[in-house]
Write a structure and sequence with these properties.
Elements: E1 3-8, E2 11-16, E3 22-24, H1 28-36, H2 44-52, E4 56-59, H3 63-69, E5 76-77, H4 83-87, E6 105-108, H5 114-125, E7 130-132, H6 136-142
Parallel strand pairs: 4-5, 4-6, 6-7
Antiparallel strand pairs: 1-2, 2-3
Helix pairs in contact: 1-5
């Protein structure tokens, strides 16, 4: 296959299919911890206030989640699977609202999990002013912040 997980006692390892090298697998909980150690997360209210001051709130949830739960007025919708291409100024597919890697960006996913990994990816690209909403859209809605029924926003 492409990579083979295997048990070595209590430790799970993977095998690189090209080199055959066996390495320790990193559980997603550690990936989240590593990602979040690189930046400061903000709460929904702080994100809303930052939006009012000009930060881009980027909704990375998938279409099913937006149709089911609604959208945030004023948020830029960029599906997670194309986020890096829409942010990277060298991709040829940068979203026009993103003026550079120093653009203030706040990522919003469903519960604040995948957005943390996405922030780490954007930091790796060189983004210097990016964070995410702790608790994601669910926390946003629970705090009574603006939400509207989905109206098929343009997706980049």
């Amino acid at each position: 296959m492409w990579g083979h997980p295997g048990n070595q006692g209590d430790e799970v390892v993977t095998e690189d299919i090209k080199t055959g090298e066996r390495t320790r697998r990193t559980p997603v909980s550690e990936l989240l911890e590593q990602a979040r150690s690189r930046y400061t997360r903000i709460g929904p209210r702080e994100a809303y206030e930052a939006m009012q001051r000009g930060a881009l709130l980027i909704d990375t949830r998938d279409g099913d989640q937006r149709r089911r739960d609604g959208t945030v007025p004023g948020a830029l919708v960029i599906d997670r699977n194309v986020l890096e291409w829409r942010v990277d100024p060298d991709s040829g597919a940068t979203h026009p609202a993103i003026n550079g890697l120093d653009t203030p960006m706040i990522l919003l996913c469903h519960e604040g999990l995948s957005s943390s990994l996405a922030v780490a990816a954007l930091l790796d690209l060189g983004a210097s002013n990016v964070t995410d909403v702790a608790g994601g859209f669910q926390a946003w809605r629970d705090q009574g912040l603006p939400v509207r029924a989905a109206d098929s926003p343009r997706i980049w």
